[in-house]
Amino acid sequence: MPYDNRCMETLDALRNSSKGKLTYNPEGPWFIEDIQDNSDFILGLSPQPDWVYERLNHEKDSSFRVIHGLSGSPSVSPSPSPSSCQEVKKEEQQLEEEEEEESKMEVQTADEEKPQDDPSTQTALLSPHDTQVQGCICLFEEIHRGKAKEQLMQRQETQALVMEDIANQELEQMKRFDELKALKQRQELQRLRDVEEQSSQEALGRQEKIREKMREEYRTRAKMREAREAEVQRQREAELLRQRQMEGRERLRRLNSIQEEVLQLQLLIDPAVSQTGSELSEYRIRGNQLCGFISEVIQASSQTQFPTPEDVSNSEKALQDMRGMISSMQQEVTQALQLKKRKEEEELARQQQTVQQKANEPVQPSPAPSSGQKVKVKKEGLQTKAEPTTLERYRQLQDLCSQCAQSFEDLNSSRDSQTKKLKMELQKAASIPVSQISSISGSKLREVFDKISMLLSGRLVQSGGKSISVTQHPQGLDFVCFKLAEKFVKQGEEEVASHHEAAFPIAIVASGISELYPKVGDLILAHLHKKCPYAVPFYPPMKDGMSVEDYQRVLGYRVEGSTVESQDSFMKRMSGMIRLYAAMIQLRWPYGNKQAPCSFGLDLGWCWLAQILDMEPLADVTATLLFDFLEVCGNALVNQYQGQFWKLILLIKEEYFKRIEAVTSTGQMGSLMRLKQFLENCISRRDIPVPKGLMSSSFWRS
């Protein structure tokens, strides 16, 4: 047909043209290139699973760091286990191999289905059926490609889930690892604690062994010490027994000598009685009684081998009574002989006078008093102040104390550091030994005495680890004497007031120092009179313009501002100082010179007692001071003055006690009752007991 011929010609022309020579490919060249590129593509995970995996690793690392940071262990980034990593790699390789095989099969299928570009086929056009088939093929390929993409996405999701599961497993494994590590740390810590506890137990065991060893050594030393002490005690007892035997023999010799003297005195009574007749028969009776008493004492002591000190004391009292009786008898005999002689002379003179009167009858003048006789005017009534001589002595001592204080004014007020240091060392050297005085042993007391004596003599003494001497300053001796006397009185004010027995060791050292250095004794009395005017005795009057506080200071009260110490405290201090004074006047240092003068003596005690009884009593003060003085010094005074002292005791009991009672109020009766009971006991026993704390001869051998 002409139409068909023209169409074929047109198609041939188009096929032979440059555009008609182009090869038709339904997929297009880009699809072939895409297939070729995909044939070389290696299967791998998409970026989304990598991002999820990194995110999981990041969360796990942060949680791991937080956990290990709280536990104190160093942070370690989690790493997958080798087994899990190998499984993931195997799965990836299998997926890659399967995809490569599928891509190769698709390429081969496409090559087989692709028409050959020979000239015979290129010029032929596809029929509608071929076109439809080709379209179906393209549609199938598109569907197959979508399924492949869908499978790939499923595999990627599966891979992401696997990776998430692996991450969770790894996190759990890290938790288990951390728990295991913490367990091991706790076990190690417990092991260290066990080792430490075991070592401490071993140390305690060693310490216990050491303690046991020390206790054993201590027990051994204690046994040895007890053995030594027992030996020393045995030796001491043997020495005491020997001393008691020696003292007993000495007392026996003394008792025999007393008996011999009493018998000799008894022999003097008979001639006197024969001269004066029966007027002195009482002395003979009393002498026989004393001789019989001493004989009974000797017979009683022979049963106990040696006489007791009380036996000797009673015998000595009997001897004193015998001596006093002989003295009184001799005085009476002398008076009787003088009276007899005077009567004879008067009779002779009367006879001569009668004869002369008959001859001349002269007037005889009345006899005049002899020039040797003195009339003693006695003061009537009790006085309010001491005698002038006592007050003069009091003023002299106070002037001496003031002059001594002024003599070391430069040393006392110096601002130089070296001088101040020297002053403090001198004060310590003077005060510390006095504070160390005690009745522990005679050797200790003698050491204190020697130390004080060496200091006053100018020699070097050790004080506080330093050598000190009064010669290191021109005013050092006066300063030490003043401070030493002040310290002695202060000890009486404080130590003796609390412990009455302490008066005797302090007093005997003060007495011994006063024998060697009389200035110290005078300063002691001056300080004592200043703090306790009743030791003079002196009742200071209140001067015009003097305040109450100043007057109380003069009386001895402690006044701080406007506060005055209580009456009990005041009387306690006064009692301590009076006891110290009473002890000082009766004691002498046993190693001193008995002939050396001393600032003290029993005559001061007699004068003090006589003057205090001659003054008006003070409420509470007089009774307390009399009791303290008599309790400390009464035994020494009665041994010295015998009957004269008993007259004073009776005077106090019968007359002076009533005056004290008259001025004593109801609240102050305690001191008065103590004095009354003491006087009654002494008078009933005819003896004043030895004061407590008085050192015996054996004390100085300790």
Automatic annotation (TrEMBL):
<dbReference type="Pfam" id="PF07817">
    <property type="entry name" value="GLE1"/>
</dbReference>
<feature type="region of interest" description="Disordered">
    <location>
        <begin position="67"/>
        <end position="128"/>
    </location>
</feature>
<keyword id="KW-0963">Cytoplasm</keyword>
<keyword id="KW-0906">Nuclear pore complex</keyword>
<dbReference type="GO" id="GO:0044614">
    <property type="term" value="C:nuclear pore cytoplasmic filaments"/>
</dbReference>
<protein>
    <recommendedName>
        <fullName>mRNA export factor GLE1</fullName>
    </recommendedName>
</protein>
<feature type="compositionally biased region" description="Low complexity">
    <location>
        <begin position="71"/>
        <end position="86"/>
    </location>
</feature>
<dbReference type="InterPro" id="IPR012476">
    <property type="entry name" value="GLE1"/>
</dbReference>
<feature type="compositionally biased region" description="Polar residues">
    <location>
        <begin position="118"/>
        <end position="128"/>
    </location>
</feature>
<keyword id="KW-0539">Nucleus</keyword>
<feature type="compositionally biased region" description="Acidic residues">
    <location>
        <begin position="94"/>
        <end position="103"/>
    </location>
</feature>
<feature type="region of interest" description="Disordered">
    <location>
        <begin position="342"/>
        <end position="384"/>
    </location>
</feature>
<comment type="similarity">
    <text>Belongs to the GLE1 family.</text>
</comment>
<keyword id="KW-0509">mRNA transport</keyword>
<dbReference type="GO" id="GO:0015031">
    <property type="term" value="P:protein transport"/>
</dbReference>
<keyword id="KW-0175">Coiled coil</keyword>
<keyword id="KW-0813">Transport</keyword>
<keyword id="KW-0653">Protein transport</keyword>
<dbReference type="GO" id="GO:0000822">
    <property type="term" value="F:inositol hexakisphosphate binding"/>
</dbReference>
<dbReference type="GO" id="GO:0005543">
    <property type="term" value="F:phospholipid binding"/>
</dbReference>
<dbReference type="InterPro" id="IPR038506">
    <property type="entry name" value="GLE1-like_sf"/>
</dbReference>
<dbReference type="GO" id="GO:0031369">
    <property type="term" value="F:translation initiation factor binding"/>
</dbReference>
<dbReference type="GO" id="GO:0005737">
    <property type="term" value="C:cytoplasm"/>
</dbReference>
<keyword id="KW-0811">Translocation</keyword>
<comment type="function">
    <text>Required for the export of mRNAs containing poly(A) tails from the nucleus into the cytoplasm. May be involved in the terminal step of the mRNA transport through the nuclear pore complex (NPC).</text>
</comment>
<dbReference type="GO" id="GO:0016973">
    <property type="term" value="P:poly(A)+ mRNA export from nucleus"/>
</dbReference>
